[in-house]
Amino acid sequence: MTFDVQVEVSLRPGISDPEGATIERALPALGFDGVSDVRVGKSIRFSIDADDRSTAESSVQSICEKFLSNPVIEDVSIVVSGQAEASDGSDS
Amino acid sequence: MTFDVQVEVSLRPGISDPEGATIERALPALGFDGVSDVRVGKSIRFSIDADDRSTAESSVQSICEKFLSNPVIEDVSIVVSGQAEASDGSDS
């Protein structure tokens, strides 16, 4: 079965975020006030083939820890959503 | 009132995504198979002060169009969630 995955990689609280700080500093000059606490992270979406949802979730967890994030400075949030298509023998 | 905002900026379908392609090519060599359609975007979170939710949503829409994304090649999805804290006169 194929599952849709969304991974959000964000800097941990306390880690300096220069990109977010630059956005926050620029917005008032463009006429947008009242914006604070800007944090910029990465959003990674993909599809993964797995036998069931829990296998998919543990694979994604492992991919995130080993490859997509730096656990020292980054947090990861993972959403595995319903199967995108059946690939276990059914034709439709 | 203060609202929490999450903005996801992703490349439009059909726009080449070299970062996603590199991840997809690297994963099998690391022992992770079955991953496809990798797309990398940005996730931007911030707080915004506004009188009500619809004002907040229209401000965020405008910030995204003018500043955070390039509408020619990028799509934006916006989530404005419940107020983070009261700032309209109540003390708590």
Observed structural traits:
homodimer; 27% helix; disordered C terminus; 92 residues; 3 strands; alpha+beta
The CATH H-level homologous superfamily of one domain in chain A: Phosphoribosylformylglycinamidine synthase subunit PurS
CATH topology category name of one domain in chain A: Mth169, Chain: A
CATH class of one domain in chain A: Alpha Beta
> What is the strand tally of chain A?
3
Classification by helices and strands of chain A: alpha+beta
Q: What share of the residues of chain A does DSSP label as strand, in percent?
A: 35-45%
Output the helix-strand order of chain A: EHEHE
CATH architecture tag of one domain in chain A: 2-Layer Sandwich
Unreliable residue runs of chain A:
87-92
Rounded to the nearest angstrom, the radius of gyration of chain A is 18 Å
Multimeric state: homodimer
- Largest beta-sheet characterization of chain A: 3 strands, antiparallel
Spatial order of the strands in the main sheet of chain A? 2-1-3
Number of distinct helices of chain A: 2
Mean pLDDT of chain A: 91
Can you describe what's shown?
Two copies of one chain form a homodimer. Chain A is elongated and about 50 Å long. Chain A has a domain at 2-14 and 41-85: 2-Layer Sandwich (Mth169, Chain: A). Helix content of chain A is 27%, strand content 40%. In chain A, strands 2-1-3 form a three-stranded antiparallel β-sheet. The first copy, chain A, is built from two helices and three strands. With 92 residues, chain A is an alpha+beta fold. The two termini of chain A are 12 Å apart. The A-B interface holds A 8-10, 20, 23-24, 26-27, 30, 32-50, 59, 62-63, 66-68 and B 8-10, 20, 23-24, 26-27, 30, 32-50, 59, 62-63, 66-68.
